[in-house]
Each structure stands twice: as C-alpha cells, then as structure tokens.
Specification:
- It is a single chain.
- This protein is α/β, with parallel strands linked by helices and 127 residues long.
- The chain has a single domain, classed as Transcription Regulator spoIIAA (2-Layer Sandwich).
- The protein is globular and about 40 Å long.
- The protein has four helices and six strands.
Amino acid sequence: MLEHGEFDLKLTGNVVHTFPVNGFNEFGIQRIRAAILDLAKGLEKWALFEHPKSLAGLTPEASEEISRSYEEFSDRGCVLIALEISPVWGEVIRKSLGNDFPIPVHFDTNAEQLDQLIDNRLSGNLS
C-alpha cells in the first residue's frame, strides 16, 4: 500500500521537531518513525516535539501506529513528547496511548509553553 503523509524534520540540540502535513496512514507513520529514530540516533536523552497544528490528519490505523511509535521512542531515550495540536486531536492521541504510558505526553496549541516543558524535562527540572 502507498504511504500517505508528508513531513519535515529538524534536530535542535536534543529535541527532534517534526512538521507533518496532509493525511497520514499507518505506512506514512512508519516512515516518519524511522526518520525520527535515525535523526535521534546517538542521543541518550531526547524529546520529540511534533508540530502538526491543524495541517495533518490520521487514519484510525495511523493513530494506532503513532502509539507504537511513541512506545519505541520511549525505549530509545525519548523522555518527553510534546504535540502542538488542538484539544480535539490531543484527545484522539491521548486515547490511543492509554493511561499507563511510560513518559509524559503534552498537548497544547501554545508552542512556547511546550518548549518550556521540554527545556525543563531535559534539564532535569520536571518529572
């Protein structure tokens, strides 16, 4: 099946930024997961900051694939995930992750607040 979804990535210090656009299916999520892991290779402690805003969408299968991706990221040194998204999309992601997710996941439309959470977590000031 064809991959759906486009993205750009940027590494700033120990923060991997993603900029997804358009609709993603599970194969598109698998492709972005591989690119994130490649970019974060060698980082012992890092954060993921996703910036889909209102520019990206998900199929139901893609939502499940995101959960698997986030679990793998937490196993490979990711200590926090932040998503610059609307409360509606945040709730969709939160439901796919369940209640016992091993690392903090934050949702907000305010990128500056999310940046502060990431800085605090990476500097050891936030549990």
